[in-house]
Amino acid sequence: MPFVLGAQNSSTSFINNLFNVHFKRTEYRKKEVHDSEENLSEVFRTNGFNVKTGYMLPSSEKYNIGDIDLICEKDGYLFVLELKSTYIRTSLENIWNYKNRTLRKASNQLHKRKRLINELLKSKEENFMSLAGEAKAIYYWIIDTSFEYDHELIDDNLKVSMFELIYVLNSKNKDFYPNGFDVCKFIELIESGSMWNKLLKEDIHMTEINYKIQIN
Asked: The whole model's pTM is what?
């Protein structure tokens, strides 16, 4: 619409138009999400995580719960991730809707899974225990390709950008992991958001960020 386009950066508008057309095609939308799951799962596996994509929890049909996008375990730490692939927002209304619809829906899905996972751990359900083991801690995160509301708790679930997660999972980064990848350090880096302090000191530009997303 003219009054919206007039307030938008032309590059952003062009990208959003591509995304909107792309996302209206269900088969492309599914492929986008599937590719995100597979790419991220491979990064986790590279760091020694036990990874499952599209994981269906035991008894999930009974509780009307869909599959988990990504569930990863390493050294007794379990990560339950809800993945989202969304576009750049250019209005306050779109940003508000993103938080109160997209992110809250994702958080609600995580809460349902959290309740079932707690029951499975309590009952020591065999199939789930083979993946989770005696979990020291469980982390429920919303992972999105956008940066809005990063590091906010959406009903107790942390929202993190896909870029940050991949960047912090880079075990070759000696600033983060001088003695090799460590899962406790990984958790600390994500929860503190300290990666951004490093990037801001480097005065990194968005073109460089896009490049690093592609190569890591």
From this structure: 0.76
